[in-house]
Request: fold
Amino acid sequence: MLKTRIKEYRLKYDMNQQTLAELVGVRRETIGHLERGNYNPSLKLAWDIAKVFNVSIEEIFEYVEEEK
Amino acid sequence: MDERSQQMIARGIGITLALLYVGLFVSAIWKYVDTKDIANSTLEIIFIVLIPASIAWFARKDESLSIPKMVSGENVPTELTKEARKSRKKYYFWDSVGFAIAVLILTILSTFFIEKDWQHLLLFPNLNETWNIIYVLGMEFIMSIIVFFAISFVWEEWNVRKYNKKLEDLEE
Reply:
C-alpha cells in the first residue's frame, strides 16, 4: 500500500487540490483520492507531483507492506 | 501476467468491444429495416443496453464520468457561479436540440420510408395533408426540446451537485 504526504506538502506550499491537479495534468478528485490512499499513481504521475514540490518521489510516497 | 501485457490486452479488449458494439447496431437496424418487426432485434437491443450499463457499473467510482461533456470532450463547468450555471444551461439547451433533431429524423425515416403510414399525423381537418404533417412534426419537435431540456436540467444539475459534494469530501 502506498502512503503519501501530498497533503502535507500542499499545505506547506499553500496549494489547493485544484492547483496541484492542473500542474500535473489530472482531475482534482484524483489528487483527493491519492491523498486518501484510495488510488496508486502511475510512476509518471508520482514523478510529476514530486517535481512540483521539488523533492524526490520517496519523500512524497512511501510503500508500506500490507499485513497478511 | 505482467503490467505491460495487461495494458495491451485491455486495449485489445476495448477495441474489440467497440467493434462488436457497432456490429450490434448495424445488425439491429438491418433486421428492423428488412423485417419491419422490432422483435427480431430483441437480442441486439438487450446487448446494446447491457454493455454500456455494465461499463457504467464498473466505472461508477469515477466521479467525472457522471458530469456532462461538451462536444469538444471537456466537462461542462461544475462550479456554482452564475457564469458556470449559464454555461451549463446553454449546454443543456443545445443538447436538447440535438436530441430533438435525432428524434425528428428517426420519426421521418420510420413514418415515411419504413412504415409508409402517416395517417396518425393528420390531426387538423382544416389543413391540407402537407401542412398537417409540418405542423404536427413541428409541434413534436418543440415539445421534444422542452421535455429533453427539463430532463437534462434536473438530472445533470443533480449530478453536478453530487460531484461538488464528493470534491468537498475529498478535500477534507
Observations:
- Chain A has five helices and two strands.
- The CA atoms of residues 20 and 31 of chain A lie 8 Å apart.
